[in-house]
């Protein structure tokens, strides 16, 4: 059984382990380990809560409609604050923003665990989202600044991608295990030792970068872009319920666009904008961010639909579903040990990216063909491995190309652009793919198909749409992206 003594012991183990090794390794890699610990905490929380929704709903008497706010409050806050969080780090110090984000996330996790009512839990989840945005925006900027050498940056980005991609399936495993062993409260309490250890270690090993309090924050611009993003994300996550062409969805979208236009006009008139024109003029950043956003739709749809396929079509429980995703996670882990960095150095980021997209496309096509009773191996297993291969090979080079030309002073806001475009595109893509899959399921049911066959037919169409999205992203990447630098092998031959 999990106890307070267990939490204290875990804090001591984490702290002592990192302290022992701190003198024998490069400080930057110690800092990388610490910030990735925070990234893992944030990523785990996005899936671990999904596993616990049923228990939370019963305990706190949520209606099905209100229960969605346990997820939506976090998603709206996280997506809305990414851009401003990145700029805060540039202006006032990225370590400060990182530590503040982890502290807020940890405190909000404690509030979630102690919540005895719906309002308290939803409010705490919103604060978790704000803390997650502050920490996540600073993490990518810290990696960019600490690892300027392209080969070292590729290795650091590989570790970042492993945590970001693998954390989702690990969340399913952790959530199932914690709920079976204790209760849903522990999916939030487990963040406390991680958060406390991260703050303590981060204060020691993470170097401060940015202007360290010398900048000026555009408060009106921050308010405009945050509210605009918040309305846009809210419109997206509620569109499947209200309808994409409903007055509610269109009105929120129009309000979001109007505020973004006002933000753009305001930014051009002030001396210290949140989003400087020089950053938007970095072509490699904008093109790579767009391609990464399109690719993210396919990859995140595969995780979302894959979890539904395993649980509803194949009848697996949350813990077994997490195990079914392990080949994907382990493939990304294997690539993060240095393989992707070597491939990027040998063939260049663009060729590596296109190979990863091809693997992702193949995995999604296999899932679009998988029946509910087909054996896990070889077809479904191959799909999981291919998607893991695609994620491991794709995200490192696309991040490398996106951030290659960004000056250190703007690393935070550039990271915000990379994150927020990916987030909004993925949220929109998931909403669209989910709505189309549900409509397909309903149409099959109305035409006389069984409930099981109709459900599977909807998932198959969803996987096919996700594969089509990856194919489009690959085509755009082939046309608009250029290598950020010459491959190492080519330089050696010159």
Folded structure, characterized:
There is one protein chain. By secondary structure, this protein is an all-alpha fold. Helix content is 84%, strand content 0%. The chain contains 19 helices and no strands. The protein has helices at 4-22, 27-60, 64-92, 94-114, 118-146, 150-181, 186-189, 191-205, 219-242, 247-269, 277-280, 283-313, 318-324, 326-347, 349-369, 376-403, 411-446, 451-480, 488-493. Helix 5 packs across helix 17 (411-446). The protein is globular.
Which terms summarize this structure?
494 residues, mainly alpha, 0% strand, globular
- Gyration radius (Cα, Å) is 22 Å
Distance between the termini: 62 Å
Helix content: over 70%
Average pLDDT value?
82
Give the biggest sheet. Answer: none
User: Looking at the structure, what is the overall shape?
Assistant: globular
Structural class designation: mainly alpha
Number of strands: 0
Strand content: under 5%
Topology, element by element:
Layout: H1 4-22, H2 27-60, H3 64-92, H4 94-114, H5 118-146, H6 150-181, H7 186-189, H8 191-205, H9 219-242, H10 247-269, H11 277-280, H12 283-313, H13 318-324, H14 326-347, H15 349-369, H16 376-403, H17 411-446, H18 451-480, H19 488-493
Helix pairs in contact: 1-8, 2-3, 2-5, 2-6, 2-8, 3-4, 3-5, 3-9, 3-17, 4-5, 4-8, 5-6, 5-17, 6-13, 6-14, 6-16, 9-10, 9-17, 12-15, 12-16, 12-17, 12-18, 14-15, 14-16, 15-16, 15-18, 17-18
